[in-house]
Design a protein that fits this description.
Layout (H helix, E strand, L loop, with lengths): L2 H5 L4 E12 L10 E21 L5 E7 L2 E5 L2 E5 L2 E6 L4 E5 L6 E10 L2
Antiparallel strand pairs: 1-2, 2-7, 2-8, 3-6, 3-8, 4-5, 4-7
Protein name: Cupin type-2 domain-containing protein
InterPro entries: Cupin_2, RmlC-like_jellyroll, RmlC_Cupin_sf
Organism: Pedococcus ginsenosidimutans
Amino acid sequence: MGEEQERAHEAKGVAVELLATIDLGREIDGLDGYQLRMRKVTIEPGGVFGPVHDHRGRPGTVFVLEGTITDHRDGTATEYGPGPGWPEDRATTHWLENRGRVAAVEVSVDIVRKE
């Protein structure tokens, strides 16, 4: 695991706000126990959304509202924002950071097991 992967284990400068959920079991047969979730994530300058995590069983997609977010996966760092972000599917293992000078804000929509 490289230096960037090691740094990713320490989450800092991140605020997560739950915006909405929908019980998918009531909407689609076979999805009992799952919900569609929408969150607003703010990553302050120098902030890290870690640790390294995967999205097996938790697919989603991201839209960056403000700033720039760097997505680290498969040894590659890709910058997004503002605008369409990245997919989060079963093959996704990543971590995020804000290398910029202003807060980065994203909206994340995913399917998760109900809490």
